[in-house]
């Protein structure tokens, strides 16, 4: 049960949602760098959020959540693809506030001019980027604001994380026709959002998805399709590195080779290293080493 995403519906109601729980993937990701407490918690929440938001897409590709700021937390990003693979990374300067923190609000409050990006990158087709100013105390509130402003689908999101595990829930009131509207209990959405907000951080972090849904909505007729497995996965490859070299151009590659031969590329998400000999690197441009 450790790393899953559980979809839920309420029978005969225009409501859907997801519960995400991450443990092993979080552990793997947080072990890749020496992160202070506040950043660990923020990355946990971002990973859960990207998994929740990715579930609302009907495309093959990936969704990433990215924070940028000019404060001591430089940037942080988390991503989930259609296979349920997640990865995350953050860049920061040492800040004593990050070490003592128990929740991610410290990391968020350290942001200077912080902006949140939501990037949707389909394997085929156009990319989309949504931008939200980070004006709220929690990541969940910032994401709800994004839905309020952009998608106009009433949405509630709750997120929580520790160093060990992370959890979150998203619930949405789906668009209805007028006819459907008449048959919907007018108290449904206010009741569900109120119940959702009673969820405590430790429940989100420690309880299985089904237990969370039962505690919240046991008065409703909740239906659960099969859950999906989430896992740590990196999309880096030697081919992607080669594409990056092609993109910077032959002159830049030649200059790099003067300082570093072979060229070594390091993926910070998974610590994989890719090596290009001069022959390989120049071969990308149809050149041979004489
Ligand atoms: Zn990688």
TrEMBL record:
GO cellular component assignments: cytoplasm
InterPro entries: Heat_shock_Hsp33 (IPR000397), Heat_shock_Hsp33_C (IPR016154), Heat_shock_Hsp33_N (IPR016153), Hsp33_helix_hairpin_bin_dom_sf (IPR023212)
Entry keywords, A to Z: Chaperone, Cytoplasm, Disulfide bond, Redox-active center, Zinc
GO biological process, one term: protein refolding
Location in or out of the cell: Cytoplasm
Reported modifications of this chain: Under oxidizing conditions two disulfide bonds are formed involving the reactive cysteines. Under reducing conditions zinc is bound to the reactive cysteines and the protein is inactive.
GO MF annotation list: protein folding chaperone; unfolded protein binding
Covalent S-S links between cysteines: 234-236, 267-270
Xref: HAMAP family: HslO
Role this protein plays: Redox regulated molecular chaperone. Protects both thermally unfolding and oxidatively damaged proteins from irreversible aggregation. Plays an important role in the bacterial defense system toward oxidative stress.
Family, as annotated: Belongs to the HSP33 family.
NCBIfam families for this protein: PRK00114.1
Name under which the protein is recorded: 33 kDa chaperonin
């Amino acid at each position: 049960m450790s790393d899953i995403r559980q979809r839920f519906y309420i029978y005969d109601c225009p409501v859907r949602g997801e519960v995400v729980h991450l443990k092993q993937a979080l552990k793997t990701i947080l072990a890749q760098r020496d992160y202070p407490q506040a950043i660990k918690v923020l990355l946990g929440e971002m990973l859960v959020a990207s998994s929740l938001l990715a579930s609302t897409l009907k495309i093959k590709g990936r969704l990433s959540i990215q924070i940028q700021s000019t404060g001591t937390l430089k940037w942080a990003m988390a991503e989930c693809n259609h296979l349920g693979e997640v990865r995350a990374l953050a860049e920061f300067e040492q800040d004593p506030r990050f070490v003592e923190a128990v929740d991610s609000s410290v990391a968020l409050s350290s942001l200077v001019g912080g902006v949140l990006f939501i990037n949707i990158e389909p394997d085929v087709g156009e990319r989309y980027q949504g931008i939200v100013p980070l004006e709220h105390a929690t990541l969940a509130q910032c994401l709800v604001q994004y839905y309020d402003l952009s998608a106009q689908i009433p949405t509630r999101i709750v997120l929580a994380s520790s160093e060990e595990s992370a959890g979150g829930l998203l619930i949405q009131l789906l668009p209805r026709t007028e006819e459907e509207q008449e048959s919907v209990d007018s108290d449904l959405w206010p009741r569900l959002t109120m119940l959702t907000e009673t969820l405590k951080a430790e429940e989100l972090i420690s309880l299985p998805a089904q237990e969370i849904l039962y505690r919240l909505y046991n008065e409703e007729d909740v239906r659960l399709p099969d859950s999906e497995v989430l896992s740590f996965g990196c999309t880096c490859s030697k081919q992607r590195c080669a594409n990056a070299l092609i993109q910077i151009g032959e002159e830049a590659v030649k200059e790099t080779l003067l300082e570093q031969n072979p060229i070594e590329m390091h993926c910070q998400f998974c610590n994989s290293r890719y090596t290009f000999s001069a022959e390989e690197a120049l071969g990308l441009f149809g050149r041979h080493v004489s």
